[in-house]
Amino acid sequence: MPILEAEVQKSFKPLTKRLDNVKLIYYLRYESVRLQTQDGSASTIHAKYNLKSILKKKKPSRSSLVKRLDSEFSKYIRQRFAVRGKARCFTCGKIDHWKNLQCGHFQSRKHYSTRWNPQNCQVQCVKCNIFRQGEQFIFGKELDKKYGIGTAKELHLESLKTVKLSNVDLQEQIKYYKDLNKTL
């Protein structure tokens, strides 16, 4: 039984959205899809290429969203106080290019309530962040100097709270920090 063109067009909207400037021509016996681009060239996708995977837009996994947010947030932290590409380590004062420095956390990254808090995260050199385990005592003293007495304690109390961010929240934060990084 042949499929009506209107049904085919309706059922393959995701394909049209996913592939830029591509128009679905016809679908024949569940074996192939004929596509036409704006410039007039046509191509056929056969069933052996698993049409379902082509049509289905894959949602990003939670871990990939967290990884992308970590990356964008880290770039923001390392660039926010950089002058001509140079930034200063928060704990030892070493000056280096922001790409050679790291995003150090006062409270561990395992605490989602403070993981992406700009006060909790500061620029640190590899020596302080990795080899000296973040220099937490000096980090706390510097936080209190910069943001006011009691900031380190407030961050500690904040880290004890349980926070569950949805995938939508993570995607919004990724977009926010991407846009912010473009302005730096």
Keywords, separated by commas or semicolons:
9 helices; 184 residues; disordered N terminus; two-stranded antiparallel ribbon; alpha+beta; single chain; 3-stranded antiparallel sheet
Describe the structure.
This protein has 184 residues and is α+β, with helices and mostly antiparallel strands. The chain folds into two domains: 5-55, no CATH class; 62-183, no CATH class. Helices cover 46% and strands 17% of the residues. A three-stranded antiparallel beta sheet has the order 1-2-3. Strands 4-5 form a two-stranded antiparallel ribbon. Strand 4 (86-88) and strand 5 (95-97) form a beta hairpin. The longest helix has 19 residues, at 62-80. The N and C termini lie far apart (59 Å). Residues 1-31 have low confidence and may be disordered.
Short recap of the structure:
The chain has helices spanning 5-11, 13-18, 51-55, 62-80, 112-115, 126-131, 136-147, 151-159, 167-183; strands spanning 22-28, 32-37, 42-46, 86-88, 95-97, 102-105, 121-124. By secondary structure, it is of the alpha+beta class. The radius of gyration is 25 Å and the shape is globular.
